[in-house]
Amino acid sequence: MANDWATFGADLHLEPLRQGQGLREGLMDALREAVRGGRLPAGTRLPSSRSLALDLGVARNTVADAYAELVAEGWLTARQGSGTRVARRSEPRPAPRTAPRRPAGGGSVTAPPAGRPTYNLRPGTPDLASFPRAAWLKAARKALTAAPDEAFGYGDPRGRIELRTVLAEYLARARGVYARPERIVLCSGFVHGLLLMGQVLRARGVREVAVESYGLDVHWELLARAGLRMPALPFDERGTRTEELGAPGATGSAGAVLLTPAHQFPTGGALQPDRRAAAVDWARSAGGLLLEDDYDGEFRYDRQPVGALQGLDPERVVYLGTASKSLAPGLRIAWMVLPEQLVDEVVAAKGTVDWVSSAPDQLTFAEFLASGAYDRHVRAMRLRYRRRRDQLVAAVAARSPGTRISGIAAGLHAVLELPEGTEESVLRAAAFQGLAVLGINRFRHPTTPRTRDALVVGYGTPSDSAWSGALEALCRVLP
Questions:
Q1: Pairing of strands 76-79, 334-337
Q2: Is beta strand 235-236 parallel, antiparallel or unpaired with respect to 239-240?
Q3: What mean pLDDT value characterizes the chain?
């Protein structure tokens, strides 16, 4: 036990000492180089002099003297009870780069920003600063206190029964989903659920999954990796033309369809009632499946809630929901409500144990839902996002009255129409303003003709302190 102190030293790799150097000078040079090169960031706690001396095979006084000298030079700091740490040092500023006089789209700049943008208006992320930490911690304490010992084992691949039970109740009440706990499979985000469905569809002999003309390429690429082709459904001013399913042409051989019916991403409209009915009729007559991505169904402002498509035919619709927009994507909690015929196949694709969904997080979310905290949080965020949407609409109307805004009745983003041929120039202007925003053609299916230019502006991401600056930067780049 005499050498137990050695187990408390942090490992530290140093470059070999140069030939002819004294031990103390060589050690000091190696530490300076590690700090200068960034391998030892500011604040890093160094091993004790005794521990490092043992690792290097040198006398403890050699290390102690080197530490003391580097403290005197300002490379390190030493404080009683805090050990020896790398000091904070000012970095030399790079010379500014020459900027263009005036970017396309309006607004003046001095130099393009380097690294992370100043303002982020990309769609798809909620306000992470508003995560309900105190309420989540309260739910976690209660859930973990009551959790049975077996909850910390490998578990059911469908996920914890506690969460599946309360999810079934919530989805039926809030989204009009027909759900029973045994038909719910929890997964690690929407992409994980889509990955599982891609495997199941391919095993069933499906070769094509029809998709919407605008969507996320990461979803298309994932289905492509499963060996599936993805023809795009036609699109018009009323949205996705599901009546084209089964008709001779590009989508005639599809065995499944991926849709965002409550709030089309990114164009922002809801699938019209006649087209919802057409999609369900096709699935029934063709024996196909509808994959419903209900990514932000809780957030609506100027319209009545649009119920889930799944409620029209639970045996033909795979409902996929997530906590990524309502709470935070970092939780990695999502769910599938499956037709009865698919449950065993999806469970088999997932594996014999629940490898990815954290049982403590599932139990916490179950308590968060059951206690009513989730409903309270969603209502509060609905009001917050509606205020931001209204401020966005007012700012654009005041600064760029010719810009038409659409897709704002629900969700966390808006579509700002641009004059034909200006999307790329406006995006370049935004980049020079330190503003991260995306154009609608970033989401266009490769086979869909280009018919419009627009910005897709997310108003969920910025913190409250950054929101006004983000709006100002956006207005500066609008034509």
A1: unpaired
A2: antiparallel
A3: 87
